[in-house]
User: What shape does this take?
Amino acid sequence: MPVVAVIGAQWGDEGKGKIVDMLSEKAKYVVRFSGGDNAGHTVVNPHGEFKLRLTPSGIFYKETTSVIGNGVVVNPAVLNKEIDDLNARGIDTSRLLISDRAHLIMPYHIVIEGLEEEALGGKAIGTTRKGIGPAYADKVARTGIRAGDLLDKEVLRERLATALENKNKILTKIYGADALSFDDIYTQYCQYADRWAPCICDTSAVLAEAIARNEPVLLEGAQGTLLDPDYGTYPYTTSSSPMAAGACLGAGIAPNKLTHTLGVFKAYQTRVGAGPMPTELNDETGNAIRELAQEYGTVSGRPRRCGWFDAVAARLTARVNGFNSLAITRLDVLDKLPRLRICTGYKVDGQVIDNFPASTTTLVKCQPVYEDLPGWQKTTGKTRVFNDLPVKAQKYIKRLEELVGCPVSHISIGQRREETIVRKSVF
Ligand code: GDP
Ligand code: IMO
Ligand code: MG
Assistant: This one.
């Protein structure tokens, strides 16, 4: 009864899409459980190169059912386009299910988020401006509209009327912006309802039955644990939990059903958007990594901030997720570098600490304490067995294992499925 969660262990973009696409071969169900179209998961496989935002990365396998879980916020316009694009490229998407409990992103979420970010000026979070935060805020404020509401257009009408009345007050009275039209939004969402109604169901119940039949289930994380609203660099975080606990909640699977939690790390570190990042390299090496690895946002195209692997942050994310093993991606990006550094502690106010502080005011003061390792300066992309890696690359991986306190089961050395060293299978 394997139920495997693939969790982002840094600030997102760790290569979850690649790992999930590769592991999906053995899965019967692949479930997105958090976030929305703020995610951008790149998948390179025999069908081509894809940048998925809402669709689970298991969509490419004929036997696999793709599930958008209750923890996701769905922008139906983005889903329409993504599914149309996949279909145009010959991908069968007929096995997609959407939880009736998933909340919908509405046009006012996107407009309000843009206004909020503008109002914050230099203190802006640097969100993806997809309306993610406002949609989750409505969820907990109990004013959200859910996919299940699309199944009854009278319910949809009522919920939209109540929500929009309030949102239009915010738009016009607080921001001096134009009000949005009820008729336009209602007509648009009725069209989405006509398209998606056949896919909307109680996906938690579907997954419970699959687990009872012993069918393998893969839970696909979005974002990364350092963007978690509780354990990330608050307030510079996203608004849903990308963690293993979030996976159970957002897929509707009981925690005791999880059999393996796989933490995905880059072999170094990146971040997009604002907020502290102690190992950020604002120098030639940082630029070199960005250009070598083409570290630009999958969705936004924004340059990603690059830095050395941060073992202090990694220990936190391993602890709060309970990783059973790690996947280290993009090891090949480091192939050319003569010297590598790993951050083992932070120096702050004259003291060395080895725990990740909760406060961003403290984090910005943290100076990384580094351990240096020699680079291997050999190509790793064609390696398929751990012992065939250059010895210095093996040492780098072993040191990460020691520092994080968790075994590395997967090493990724390229974008494609086959460019992976599997030391221990998770299914
Ligand atoms: P995700 O959001 O975690 O799915 O990651 P993204 O897709 O946003 O960013 C990861 C990028 O790294 C994508 O362009 C992947 O195709 C690419 N990638 C994943 N694994 C590897 C790897 O081992 N080596 C290289 N060179 N690229 C990789
Ligand atoms: P994947 O799934 C990297 C970041 C944004 C911003 C913060 C809040 O591809 O790893 P939001 O729009 O969520 O309110 O923005 O979170 N962010 C991501 N960074 N990868 C992602 O997803 C991200 N999703 C959100 O840049 O800093
Ligand atoms: Mg991404």
